[in-house]
Amino acid sequence: MRLGDRALGALTLLGAIGLFFASRQFSPIPGQKYGAETLPLVISILAGAVGIWLLVQGLATERSAALTTTPDWAREPAAWAKIAAAIIVIAGYILASDWLGFTISSLILVAALMLLTGTRLLTALPVALATVIVVQFAFGKLLLVPLPRGEFLSLPW
User: Fold this and answer.
1) Which of 12, 44, 46, 11 is nearest to 25 (CA)?
2) Measured distance CA(3)–CA(51) in Å, rounded
3) How far apart are CA 129 and CA 92, in angstroms?
4) Which residue of 34, 35, 90, 144 pairs with 28 in a disulfide if CB–CB is 3.0 to 4.6 A?
5) Quick one: pLDDT at residue 22?
6) Structure pTM?
7) What residues have CB less than 8 Å from 48, skipping those under 6 apart?
8) What is the mean pLDDT of each run of 10 residues along the chain (157 residues)?
9) Distance from C-alpha of 104 to C-alpha of 131, rounded to nearest angstrom
């Protein structure tokens, strides 16, 4: 299903409004001029501007067009099976990341998603490995984000 600019703009604007009000609930960080709500507020304002722009553009150019159209790929059951498989892989990552740890579960996630999109195994594995190493370094070492180490690596082998 393809959303027209009017429908996508309305959904984006609704999401921006929801994010704006949800981020106002975050607690301020003591001693800081800005708190945990700052980045979500900025994103909500930018998303609201994009939503308004899409609405205006859609109203100007798509007055008689349908709000949604169904592309050819959406009529194929294999496409929906791949979408379901991707959702299952992501849910599996969420459930397994605490036990397997970030590195192993992310490697499986990235490789599985690449294989679902038709990437060959000999290409997917090195790219997934490089991606996980870069993300692990960027978030774990540079940004000091605590990533799950996992209980799997702590087992007595």
Assistant:
1) 44
2) 13
3) 19
4) 35
5) 93
6) 0.64
7) 12, 13, 16, 17, 20
8) 83 96 84 80 95 92 76 86 96 93 94 96 96 92 85 64
9) 12
